[in-house]
From TrEMBL:
GO cellular component, one term: extracellular region
Domain of life from the UniProt record: Eukaryota
Protein name in the entry: Expansin-B4-like
SUPFAM superfamilies: Barwin-like endoglucanases, PHL pollen allergen
This protein's encoding gene: LOC107760609
Residues in Expansin-like EG45 domain copies: 63-173
Annotated family: Belongs to the expansin family.
Length: 273
């Protein structure tokens, strides 16, 4: 019986190792496009539609129905905002909630998700058709497009998107209270903004100076909350306790409204969710 020579053994061993290496490469190396498709298919995205309003490179409107004013244009919102239909706006209780959206069906879609905040209400035709309708700012809508195709993409009109609720994250930003211009010693009203986490609010309470009692504030409109003051019992400085709509976590901004508070002023707290 003859046996292969040493050179033959080396040839066989080399061939076996090459085949084994090729099989490993074939099993573990998958084109990135296929990986992206697989990941996208497992994402917990829900169907919705999107449009845009305002200036092509703008912030939709000046705060709109939530009352954030020109803050929608500046950090941390940075014009990455949207109006929402009734299922998203929730009578104002949806103000401040953050969502991730992505589009894939239009040829100009980047297929890269963006995150934006609900800052306005989309009435009228936003109630027709899909149960969830995002009316994005021109800036946010353009951010869904491939580089250099934002203007072309905005001409698409209404598009199908996927969306999911995400936590708001405003680095190095604390909750801010903007005092309404109509506030006075007998009436206190403020817009509350920049809440991390849930972003929205279900309950706001005020504690006067020298008291351990939390007084419930009423939602006036959008992100604006109000309370009637009865001096001398209800006097500043005021602490304010916030409770989000879903998680029900609480946050207390101690003495955030000073003794000399004034209408039209903004007071930034030291805390955030």
């Amino acid at each position: 019986m003859s046996y292969p020579s040493i050179p033959q053994y080396s040839f066989y061993l080399f061939t076996i190792l090459a085949i084994f290496s090729l099989s490993l490469k074939t099993c573990t190396s998958v084109p990135s496009k296929l990986v992206n498709v697989s990941m996208a298919e497992t994402d917990p995205l829900l169907p919705a539609v999107a449009t845009w309003y305002g200036d092509p490179a703008g912030a939709g409107s000046d705060g709109g129905a939530c009352g954030y004013g020109n803050d929608v244009r500046n950090p941390p919102f940075s014009a990455m905002v949207s109006a929402g239909n009734s299922n998203l706006f929730k009578g104002g209780k949806g103000c401040g909630a953050c969502y991730q959206v992505i589009c894939k069906e239009n040829l100009a879609c980047s297929e890269v998700p963006i995150t934006m905040t609900i800052t306005d209400e989309c009435p009228g035709t936003c109630g027709d058709g899909a149960p969830f309708h995002f009316d994005l700012s021109g800036t946010a809508f353009g951010a869904l497009a491939k580089p250099g195709q934002a203007d072309l993409f905005r001409g698409a009109g209404i598009i199908n998107i996927g969306y999911k609720r995400v936590s708001c994250n405003y680095p190095q930003t604390t909750v801010t209270f903007k005092i309404d211009a109509g506030s006075n010693p007998s009436y206190f009203s403020c817009v509350i903004e920049f809440e991390n986490g849930d972003g929205d609010l279900d309950l706001v309470e005020l504690r006067p100076s020298g008291s351990d009692q939390w007084l419930p504030m009423k939602q006036s409109w959008g992100a604006n909350w109000k309370i009637d003051l009865v001096p001398p019992q209800v006097i500043a400085p005021f602490s304010i306790r916030l409770t989000p709509l879903d998680s029900k976590k609480t946050l207390i901004a101690e003495n955030v409204i000073p003794v000399d508070w004034a209408p039209g002023k903004s007071y930034r707290s030291l805390v955030n969710f």
